[in-house]
Amino acid sequence: MLSIEGLEVAYGESLVLRGVTLHVPEGRVVCLMGRNGVGKTTLLKSIMGLLAPRRGRVLFAGEDITRQAPDGRARRGIGYVPQGREIFPHLTVRENLQVGVLGAAGGGREIPEHVFELFPRLKTLLHRKGGVLSGGEQQQLAIARALVARPRLLLLDEPTEGIQPSVIQQIEEVIARIKAHVSILLVEQYLEFAWRLADSYAVMQKGAIVSEGSTEALRSDVVKRHLTV
Prior knowledge:
Strand order of the largest sheet: 6-7-8-3-9-10
Helix content: 25-40%
CATH class: Alpha Beta
Structural class: alpha/beta
């Protein structure tokens, strides 16, 4: 579903991604791990088209989208849930979800009912402003806003960060339900969460992939060397 080939991205003269190659198969969850500041968020932004690469390619469903604008990538079927949620605080829950619908192929205004089956709490909050929601409610809204467009690939940047355990459990259940028909690239520091959900992993260090494989084969020495603070 997603192939990243030799991607190099820089902020000014500072090279942040150094020849990253990574693949996300259809219907699979790949967890991208690494300490803070190694380039994980930069990679997701590059996949979404928010940062332009110096070199390399991004292919989605076999098509080269390296130079395509972010809105075009969204309409092709890539959903993005950024770190920090970035919902619209002055829009209601309904309006936030409608923005997600507008970004889908074909546009429209109707919010698909399946989103409320995944996140029933949101249906009771439709008229509430996004900025007054709790952190857990905002994260549910951020994920739901991406899912209303029915993406084929979902990019999730640290969805459990600062979230209470009950909501983490719900997010885990949602990912488990949708993974059969949505490929997922998950950036996550919470290892137990990643182990339970991901089919495979990749570890980043200093802007490069330094280890990858099946989640079952993730060894303690790799965790200690690349992930433990």
